[in-house]
């Protein structure tokens, strides 16, 4: 039987009078449970056991904003004068233009890639599933440097093309270089949650649309794409906020954005009040992005409305589109992974005999993996109450908590690090210069990375399943452990995997907040690049990619086991 799928705002029909003398005991029990849980027709009231941890997480996410307010207090006249300069508004325009271009292109790349590797008979799907995610493991500052070396004027590519008469390639510096690099290394933020959402979709609606005479394209646009909207928007939020706060890549490619202006105020002008004011404008821009996201996001039901068991869909045959699909995947992987790895391999060959530094890779690799695992676990734990509140109790409070949770992702890493130092020295003395404070900073920055896919998966779980478990005597924590978490596992794994990946390559926070002698692969790569030892940097960067590939393969294998 075809299943109903309707907007959540569609009025629920009032219950009809019973045709029998009275409802049975089980029906009365279910109705009482619905009233207690705030069911249809009544405003849902979130329990304090959920509100309190979610509010605490949101308050912790706002610590960097509190630091900025403290820094700018008493200097509003100087800050206002800086903000109203024409140059400041020009920089803001360049920043928002880059954000819009990178986000739109990321969606255009990620949605068809997710569809191809999850729902079609694309040859080599397992390989493409891993390869299309791996660009996320390449640090943006490393990727931008490698592209300048490879495709910039007089770069490696120009040398290869010189026998053909090519004397100079287009300059990558400026908007187009920043747009290319940021798109290639951020589209997996959208790809992973969309892929997790596709794995959870029940194919019955799609099959019903096909049986009614709709073609594949019309079915995708009218049935599948609307159900992917939460995952697409959650990934697009991350890409937009990441691009807004990016510093390394845009600086390397000489494209002046807001983060560049903040850095100049911190480092060149030594004016932390002015830098704090600019960072507050960056926070306002982030809130504007979140507001636009809320405006675009409609409240739909993404779960089943009729009984049945979700099942994996049959792969869609590509037919004559197989070769264009393979060419599309190959082009994206070549640009996002092949070019950077090719340049790295070149520098490995050239610099393998630079010195005795191999023994340093062991501690740096262990530290990177350990701190990334701690950050992934801590971030997912912090995201659980926020995702549950937003998915099950939508309203003003949940919206406020969710928007506060995204603020840290839009603030430059140097500001987050200085805020943690400020509060660590004054209020958290025993935790200052410890791994715990470093992990806390990772959680503040990367919480949206886990929150997006987790919330999207939570929206796809029918709340009636949790309701029935409660009527059968399960306590709330048992319902969460035995019913909800197994159903949201794809989103949970996608979120944890993304946090693990981005923590591996995080640089500013690690440089400033790491304990003495605590080196990671990211800091080792940065130190080698700044010192000019490109062979060492290449080997360490390749090791970063290998560690990220192993984590992605583990996530994909566990997702496959769950789907089976």
Automatic annotation (TrEMBL):
InterPro entries, per database record: MetI-like, MetI-like_sf
Keyword entries, A-Z: Cell inner membrane, Cell membrane, Membrane, Transmembrane, Transmembrane helix, Transport
GO biological process: transmembrane transport
Domain ABC transmembrane type-1: 92-291, 365-555
A single cellular component GO annotation: plasma membrane
Location of region: Disordered: 1-29
Protein's membrane topology: Multi-pass membrane protein
Keyword Membrane in record: yes
Broad class of where this protein is predominantly found: membrane
Pfam families according to UniProt: BPD_transp_1 (PF00528)
Subcellular location as annotated: Cell inner membrane; Cell membrane
Stretches with biased composition (Pro residues): 10-24
Keyword flag Cell membrane: yes
Coiled-coil region: none
Stretches that traverse the bilayer: 48-70, 91-115, 127-151, 172-192, 273-296, 325-349, 369-391, 403-425, 431-451, 533-556
SUPFAM superfamilies: MetI-like (SSF161098)
Family: Belongs to the binding-protein-dependent transport system permease family.
Name by which UniProt lists this protein: ABC-type Fe3+ transport system, permease component
